[in-house]
Amino acid sequence: MKRLTRRWTTALALVVLPAALLGLRLGSAALADEGSKEKTKADKAAPNELTAEEKKEGWKLLFDGKTLDGWHNFKKDTVNPGWKVQDGTLACVDPAKAGDIVTADRFDWFELSIEYNISEAGNSGIMFHVTNDGEAIWATGPEIQLEDNEKAKDPIRCGWMYGLYKPENDPKTNKPIDATKPVGEWNHMRIVIAPPPAKSFVEVNGVKYYDFVWNSDDFKERVSKSKFKNMKNFAKFDTGFIGLQGDHGAISFRNIKLRPIKDNGKKDPSK
Fold first, then answer.
1. What pLDDT score does 243 carry?
2. Is the pLDDT of residue 140 over 60?
3. What is the C-alpha separation between 60 and 39, in angstroms, rounded?
4. Quick check: 142 and 239 in contact, CB under 8 A?
5. Neighbour count for residue 222 (Cβ, 10 Å)
6. Is-cis flag, bond preceding 197, omega within 30?
7. What is the spatial distance between Cα 107 and Cα 103, in angstroms, rounded to a whole number?
């Protein structure tokens, strides 16, 4: 009977011990997984906020999600009532009473990250190197078009640099590449304006549309063939405001982040 008891005890130990060890491993894995989830939450910033990593990399917010601080209408000190802070967005809610707005600060070379949600048939734009030397915002600053590609009337599509650059044709459609999401969804745009001879470029939802060298011979030739050719101050400045168009349709912006960049010898100086 003693031998049988010993054998039974040994067998039970062989079953219970591995199970206990497995339980400890699963428990540790669960804790590690929870820790990983918490770390991910900590690394991911809420809308209109910067992560610790972004702060370290030199990013700054151009919109705090709560106020219109840092923005004013072109050649004015205030913001027209057509622009509102709405549900954490910088929103053009009434294009008839909005007009174009610009940043308080001027920027030369930078990487801009911005999200937008456009209305049906809406049309807007992002301008850079804007100065007060023109009668309109677009008389000095080139415009990156924003629009509802399905129903907007303007043939210049979203992400194109108005009158100057557009993406190559998609072989599947034989039309210029279109990476935009439908009306009602948030789109992300990345604009890098780099010091020559480094290349500047535009991306829409992670898809690169085109690149260019600021004020290169190619750039100047395109300007000379565009509607801007007789605008003496168009694209003549290496620094200026960033502008948002607000007179062609309702649109909302959020997560407007900018990082100054310098020429470091790379084709993409933002990295």
1. 98
2. yes
3. 22
4. no
5. 18
6. yes
7. 9
Structure tokens at 244: 């948002």
| Separation of alpha carbons 146 and 126, rounded Å | 7
> pLDDT per residue over 52-72, tens digit each?
999 999 999 999 999 999 999
Please tell me whether residue 14 adopts helix, strand or coil conformation.
helix
Residue 107 in tokens: 């920027």
**pLDDT tens-digit series, residues 206-244:** 999 999 999 999 999 999 999 999 999 999 999 999 999
Farthest CA pair distance, the chain: 108
Q: Of 140, 182, 171, 175, whose CA–CA distance to 160 is shortest? A: 175
Distance between first and last Cα of the chain: 76
Residue at token pair 């734009």: 125
The rounded Cα 29 to chain-centroid distance in angstroms is 36
Share of the chain above pLDDT 70, in %: 80
Question: Is the CB of residue 63 less than 8 Å from the CB of residue 258?
Answer: no
* Closest by Cα among 125, 4, 107, 19 to 60: 107
What's the whole-model pTM score? 0.82
